[in-house]
Amino acid sequence: NYLRWFEEAFAPYHGPLPRAMYHDSYEHNSNWSPDSFDQFARRRGYRLETELPALLGSQDDDRAARVKCDYRETLSDILIEETLPLWVQWCHSRGILTCNQAHGSPGNLLDLYALADIPETEMFHTDRAKLVSKLASSAAHVTGRRLTAAETGTWLAEHFTETLADMKYLQDDLFLSGVNHISPGNPSLCVHLPRAKLRAQPGVPGILSAPRSRSPGRGRWTF
User: Fold this and answer.
1) How far apart are CA 79 and CA 113, in angstroms?
2) Which is nearest to 100 in space by CA: 60, 134, 136, 65?
3) Exposed e or buried b for every residue in 44-58, given b needs 16+ CB within 10 A?
4) Which of 68, 121, 126, 146 could form an SS bridge with 136, CB 3.0 to 4.6 Å?
């Protein structure tokens, strides 16, 4: 399965493991698996093969609505009961936390956020829906999670035009949404330089820079 690639990558490595494994927002089209027909029959009590015209057709009647609802509930059930728990168990067995952006998933977002150790939301550009971000913080609250994270500053305006004031306004919105763990988007990495040169070099240890969005003179935070 998909996790086998990570097992092979980590096999020869014996150093410190990552603190957490991050699953970005669900931005791919994954709505089927080899056992989908059997999963559907087991969970819904009838064979989806007999209702493909209702599922894939253009009719807008009660039967089609019920079949599509059952199909979508099945996808959600598989994600919540099998797919995400498999990933969480794999990480926990290696002492790694999980950080999940559930938004975009074809499932119940509250349940999917709640499966992760660190539910993570995001805001960007003009998309500042606090209610959407509260799905992550609400899941963290009801499950006793200590952190609610947010991918922050990925895209606030046209590239190289953003200011630290823009970031401040964004973070205020995130804090109002229940976020308490800021994760700056797209940080650049660089080799270590002497401390005396840090302030002259964006992206080196001690300074976090997202150069694709902020100007060279504005895109730095000194830790």
Assistant:
1) 11
2) 136
3) beeebeebeebeeee
4) 121
Beta-carbon contacts of 191 under 8 Å, excluding residues fewer than 6 positions away, are: 204
What burial class does residue 186 get, using C-beta atoms within 10 Å of its C-beta: 0-12 exposed, 13-18 middle, 19+ buried? middle
Residue 216 has pLDDT above 80, yes or no: no
CA angle 210, 212, 218 (to 5 degrees): 55
User: pLDDT, tens digit, for every residue of 104-145?
Assistant: 999 999 999 999 999 999 987 777 889 999 999 999 999 999
Strands (E), the chain: 20-23, 97-100, 118-123, 149-152, 181-184, 207-208, 221-222
Phi, psi of 181 (to 5 degrees): -140, 100
Sign, CA torsion 136/142/75/50: negative
What type of residue sits at position 5?
A: W
Rounded Cα–Cα distance for residues 84 and 121 (Å)? 17
Name the pTM for this structure: 0.80
* pLDDT for res 185: 67
For residue 95, which phi and psi values (nearest 5 degrees)? 75, 25
What are the φ/ψ torsions at residue 21 (nearest 5 degrees)? -105, 135
Residue carrying the six token digits 């001690």: 206
Could you tell me which CATH number the domain at 18-189 has?
3.20.20.80
Contact 109, 102 (CB under 8 A): yes
Sheet holding 97-100, edge to edge: 20-23, 97-100, 118-123, 149-152, 181-184
